[in-house]
Design the sequence.
């Protein structure tokens, strides 16, 4: 029986299995047969490729715009790797490696507008994220969250105040652009507009009838909604100057202490990750012999899985598995 060896190196991983080496996500400075890149967030893009790149065409386009060279030589599948929709952001993929190891990358099993959720498949080994791997992180239904957030934003606007919508620039903000594109005084931060343009070039028909922040006029006179990434100093200056109310869209809004963090007046649990219950559903459907946790609450989720009888292991940085245990 061939046993995989996995080494966590920084924010990425090196997998050795059946005589082949797979670099995974943000890892550089070594040689591998293949380099699997799950999606185009900066904490998953390597500085330099370690092997033949395997990623989606959308991720290749986004990663190239974010500085990764030689990515045009990518393939979307190989004899040894099959990519699967991950449901995280545009182009995000999970990977079935050697028909035995399922690497999830960042995942979301819920359909959201133009994104299709991750569909778990059976695998012998499961290498997964645990960003929200604690039982307290359970998100509301997507449609209900959208409705409540819109009602809240409209209530603020009806009082003559401005609204700042907060979400990270790549992924979350494209969903927010589509959700709030109906508002005729929507302003979109330049960094988000850049990615909106890239999404449109990849066939996502986003609403772009909005003002761009650097070109916006009459901010002093009008009421408006601004869609922005969370940039503390900029946002704090804007909200103070224009008496604006901050609304943040994040899974962390379910944390019991979120209201005391001071990030926004209101938070809604619209996330591009799987919540705790969704992570558990993935484990049950994959039904693996062994589970490896690589990102997020890995120790907490490992303990929870072990208590349920699963063979689970947290992958600490520079730790080698399975043969070391």
Sequence:
């Amino acid at each position: 029986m061939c046993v995989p060896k996995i080494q966590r190196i920084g924010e990425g991983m090196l997998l050795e299995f059946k005589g082949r080496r797979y670099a995974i996500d943000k890892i550089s400075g070594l040689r591998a047969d293949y380099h699997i890149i799950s999606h185009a967030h900066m904490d998953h893009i390597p500085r330099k490729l370690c092997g033949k790149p395997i990623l989606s065409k959308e991720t290749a386009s986004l990663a190239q715009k974010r500085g990764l060279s030689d990515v045009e030589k990518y393939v979307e599948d190989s004899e040894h790797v099959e990519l699967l929709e991950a449901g995280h952001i545009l182009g995000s993929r999970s990977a079935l490696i050697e028909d035995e190891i399922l690497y999830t990358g960042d995942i979301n099993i819920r359909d959201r507008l133009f994104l299709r959720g991750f569909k778990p498949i059976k695998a012998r080994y499961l290498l997964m994220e645990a960003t929200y791997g604690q039982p307290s992180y359970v998100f509301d239904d997507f449609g209900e969250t959208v409705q409540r957030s819109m009602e809240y934003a409209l209530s603020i606007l009806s009082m003559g105040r401005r609204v700042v919508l907060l979400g990270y620039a790549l992924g979350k903000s494209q969903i927010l652009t589509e959700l709030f594109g109906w508002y005729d005084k929507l302003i979109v931060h330049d960094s988000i507009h850049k990615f909106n343009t890239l999404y449109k070039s990849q066939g996502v028909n986003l609403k772009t009838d909005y003002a761009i922040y650097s070109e916006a006029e009459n901010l002093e006179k009008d009421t408006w909604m601004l869609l922005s990434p969370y940039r503390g100093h900029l946002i704090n200056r804007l909200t103070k100057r224009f008496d604006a109310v901050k609304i943040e869209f994040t899974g962390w809004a379910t944390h019991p202490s979120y209201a005391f963090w001071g990030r926004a007046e209101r938070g809604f649990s619209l996330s591009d990750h799987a919540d705790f219950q969704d992570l558990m559903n993935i484990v049950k459907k994959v039904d693996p012999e062994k589970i490896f946790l690589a990102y997020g609450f890995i120790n907490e989720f490992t303990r929870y899985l072990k208590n349920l009888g699963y063979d689970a292991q947290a992958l600490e940085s520079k730790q080698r598995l399975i043969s070391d245990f």
Residues 142-158 form the longest helix (17 residues).
